[in-house]
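Why does this matter for the project? Reviewers at the last site visit asked to see concrete outputs rather than summary tables. In response, this paragraph embeds two records directly. Each consists of the residue sequence and, immediately after it, the corresponding structure tokens. Nothing has been edited or filtered.
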Amino acid sequence: MIRDMTLGQYYKGDSVIHRLDARVKLMGTLLFVVTLFLPKSPAALLSATLFLAGVTALSKVPLSMLIRGVKPLLFLIIFSAGVNLLFTPGETIVQWGFLRITKEGLRLSIYLVIRLVYLVVGSSIMTFTTTPGRLADGLEKSLGFLTKVRIPVHELAMMISIALRFIPVLTEELDKIMKAQMSRGADFESGSLMQRARQMIPILVPLFVSSIRRASDLALAMDARCYNGGIGRTKLKPLRYEKRDYAAYGVLGVYTVWMAGCAFFLRA
């Protein structure tokens, strides 16, 4: 499960999606997520499937890596689908005592599972094809207007960038600690819920100590380089829109309008 965490990982490549401006990918991910949760429509779901398949093919990110990113959330997806399946009122298909599966619940659960999987895969494509540094630059540029109301956009973007960079590092550290404890006879699979919770203490304490040490080292490194925020700072590779970025915005606009039309005029 730990090795399946893909959030924050970057897949090095030279695809069309890799070369897009980070702002385009952020906007595209946002629009994709919003259109996913428009009113249910088979035509909209099919359109989202084709769009996601096209973007996946253009990104050249292995499908196995995208699917692996869904595994850590598999329990949450199954639980959410089960709640909707068993407790949605409507026309009964099967019933066991007070539990029953309705036609509406089955349909809602299918839509929910597909939407959540697409949500994870779509977000993963953005992080796989964008380095944390470019992602932070894109966030800072996109939300720059918030500086007029004294919101520290640069600092927020920097925190997000650091968090994304450290997720794979901490995941690897957690894996090492667990293996070290298991080699000393620790058992994390058996016992009651309380016993398993106690067995996590020898893992969490070293992980927190390691995290604090890394944060302290990072702070010292930033101080040594005279980092004092985003005011007056320049960038080695500033973000600039190119023709492909405007073309991508055009595709996103057409896709958004089409999805809205499918959702509101072709509802099942």
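We now turn to the second protein, recorded in exactly the same manner.
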Amino acid sequence: MNSIFLILPILIPVAFGLFVMLRRPKNSSIISFVGAVLTGLSIFLCADANQALEFTVTGSLSFLLHADGISVFFLCLIAVGFACAILYAREYLQGDQRSPVFFGFTLMTLGAMMGLSLAGNIVTFYMFYEMMSLLSFPMVLYSGSEKARRAAIVYLGFSVFGASMALMGILLGGDLAMRAFSEPIGETVLSAKYQWAYLLMALGFSCKAGMMPLANWLPTAHPVAPAPASALLSGIITKAGILGIIRSTFYLFGGANLAGTMPQTVMLVLSIATIFAGSMLAYKEKLLKKRLAYSSVSQLSYVIFGLMLMSAEGLSGALLQVVFHACAKVGLFLCAGAFIHHCHVNYVDELTGMGRRMPKVMAAFTCFSLSLIGIPPFGGFISKFQIAAAALDQGTVLAQIGVIVLMVSALLTAGYLLPIVARGYFPGEGYKVKKTDAGMAMVVPLFVLAAIAAVLGMFPQGIMSCFSAISANLF
């Protein structure tokens, strides 16, 4: 009977989103934040791994919701990210008459992401995956400008193309791909058909995760989307692609079965190339939000690289990177939005003295930058170290090349983030500026995310043990 609770994290945000968008109440931001908080609280009602809810569509297809360790992890991550972005948007969109539309679609996107996290088979996952793309499309289109329309079309086009590739893989995979995620798969030799099926699924889902050559939507969409939307697109919505890769790799085809195969080699090569290329493009980019977008392209492929090692240690490191990338990238885009909203700056060169103009926001920006680079005590160091250690343990040439690229990427990350911090706090002699810091609705989410990155970085044992338990069940 408790299995009915599995629907709550999906229905609550959708109901709140429809109410806000259709009724357009004056306090839509508060109602939306309450909806996001209630969605997060509802996770406690469906965290029991024994719960499952299934509706038969046809004889061979079913709509299945099921909670397992991966589900609960992504549910919590998504809930925190959306709650922070919605609270921040209260100040960012203050006075905007169209804000109920933004809050409505944001909440419905939250519902779709909760659904794909709870999906118990690939059919249910794919349904919510497509819903998420369609519902998040208006978040990019929000301003209604010509650039926003073009960017929204690019975002939707890449989303549809990637989903189509994944669908082809699902159909090619047949019964093996249609299995419930909870059904164990033993060790077996995958035929060429199943290897191609997996590769199509992995490449299709990697589009949402920003892996090249399907990453162009990120630097196109972020500069025109509102800052809360950019934060969610980069820090949270991209994780839908990561979750798709995790489900198809470890729950449908089996990591042990894929080790040493052609798809593993292809995905390793593409992820390593993306890590380096994304960092180089971010280093050269002068537009702040576009620099952060290219940074996401690089940092998300750290996760894919860790997953493609096909080991328990690699999976644990990848999940750690999911957490700390989400905290850092949601936070960095929210900081960028505060700079743009209050100081009307868009380019990196315009951020000189920002540590004096907006000290609270700049302090948070510094914390997120240090975490993304991988400097202790912030959590980014732990995740990158774990991935590098897993690659060295594997010992293959590609894995060792990957470690070298990780180190080069870390240096490039420092190169495109630390100068912003340095110029922000040390603008030069005689620099005078009026202090214009953000309000509490903007500052509180930044400090919450920074605290998570710092606390989990200093005391990672609890979350690492959870990820080790998840990995142990799959290997």
